[in-house]
Amino acid sequence: MKRKLLLLLFSLSLAFNFAVIATFGHHWMMKRCFEKGPGPMMEHKLKKMLGLTDQQAQLMEKDREEMKKSMEPMREEPQKKREELFTLVDADVTDNARIDKLVNDISTLQSKIEKTVVAHSIKVKKNLTPEQRKKFREFLQKNFKKPPHGDGFMHISRQCDGFVWAQLS
Question: Does 91 share its domain with 140?
Answer without folding.
Answer: yes
